[in-house]
Amino acid sequence: MRKKYYDNYDYEEAYNEQIEKLEEAEAERIAKKGKGAGYRTTTTEAGKMIEVDIYPTFNVRHDMPRTKRGRESRPAQKNLNDKRARRYLNQLASANFGKGDLWGTFTYRAGEEPESIDDAEKKFGNFIRRINRRRKRAGKENIKYIYVTEWEDGEKGVRCHHHAILSGDVDRDEIEQLWYHGDRTETKRLAPDPDTHIAGLVHYITKDPKGKKRWKTSKGLKKPTITRSYSKFGKTKVRKMACDYTLLESELKKKYKNARFVDAKVYQNEINGGFYIYARMVRD
Fold it and tell me: How is residue 201 annotated by DSSP?
């Protein structure tokens, strides 16, 4: 009978104290408190980008950190105050968009702002339908997109705009002409960073909002590929990797061949003696 492990918890919440440098003796002291059975490695591949999460798993449910929620379900399309939603959106964008695709900011003229964030999303949805009608006449499939609606209702009135990433087989001038609600529309071709792909752009359009931010996507986007392993990295190996950044990098390169190491962060939880490692890699 297969042994049951408990690890469906929000490890980013449970292990939020980042370690800049940890000595071996200190790591051993923390590890002695450990209640974990071992470590689980979750690998998320999205286009060229690879994200690796290494975090403790537990024999007993009671030992598992108490967090507001688990990790198994995919974040819904919702308010981007949620860190997990922002991370998933970055993965989704990396899996579906790259060099030559389009991104733009779509604004509203003064005095013509939408009445609510729902009204704003309705207007942008109509904009997408206009694009797709034009594409259908040209014998093309519907456009792929991810868009974020940013809404702020403050002392100076309503401020609303949309950030969008669109598939690149479109004419920029045509796209801008089909947005009827503002004159300051700006679109550009994506030029991904060799290390972080389009993570910088996604961070920009999803940064912590002053008001509300919501996101929507077209149907049929490729989903990130997620694999999980209980045997990729053992407890002793993880402890050594937490102390030695050079070792951490070399061990990840061994496990993920043909991928280039970008960066990594190590976190700790002194209560249960566990470490959490987050790393990014990329395939050229």
Answer: H
25 contact partners, CB below 8 Å, separation of at least 6: none
Q: Which of 148, 247, 157, 252 has its CA nearest to residue 203?
A: 148
Quick one: tokens of 32? 């002695």
Q: Judge whether residue 59 has pLDDT over 60.
A: yes
3.30.70, 1.20.1530, 3.10.450, 3.30.1050: CATH of 99-191: 3.30.70
Parallel, antiparallel or unpaired: strands 102-107 and 157-166 = antiparallel
Contact 230, 10 (CB under 8 A): no
Query: Is residue 72 helix, strand or coil?
Result: coil
**CA R_g for the chain:** 22
Domain residue spans of the chain: 17-66+224-282, 99-191
What is the arithmetic mean of pLDDT over 50-54? 96
pTM value is 0.86
